[in-house]
Specification:
The longest helix has 35 residues. It is built from three helices and four strands, in the order αββββαα. Helices cover 41% and strands 21% of the residues. 22% of the residues are buried. A four-stranded antiparallel β-sheet has the order 1-2-3-4. The chain is of the alpha+beta class.
């Protein structure tokens, strides 16, 4: 096997691994989202952007009165990021969710929370 063929084979295996791990991450996210959707009246989903900084995806389940029933956050730069429970917001009303106070030193989480507060129908 020549050096060029070896490099092409390694690149193809890395690409296939990325596809498989990305699919697994999407599956984990969808399972967490489905579980969250069953717990609340509305689910708000927010995402911060960034190409070379860790992205944050935040999902919050609100009951009919506007209180947070449950939530999770997915934070990371790679496909190894997994949904983690966001327990510190449970029980707070929508009006008590002030992103700049809750995540004072984390602008990415502030952006994700600000978008998740207003659930889309």
């Amino acid at each position: 096997m020549s050096t060029t063929s070896w490099f092409i084979s390694i690149a193809a295996l890395a690409w296939l691994g990325q596809i498989l791990l990305g699919g697994w991450q999407v599956y984990q996210f969808n399972c967490a989202y489905d579980a969250l959707h069953g717990q609340g009246h509305l689910v708000g989903l927010g995402r911060s952007g960034g190409r070379f900084t860790p992205r944050v995806v935040m999902a919050l389940a609100f009951d009919a009165d506007g209180y947070v029933r449950n939530g999770f956050t997915l934070r990371g730069l790679s496909v190894f990021a997994r949904p983690r429970p966001l327990t510190r917001l449970i029980g707070l009303h929508k009006t008590q969710l002030v992103p700049s106070v809750i995540f004072a030193k984390d602008p990415a989480s502030q952006t994700a929370l600000a978008l998740a507060i207003e659930p889309k129908l």
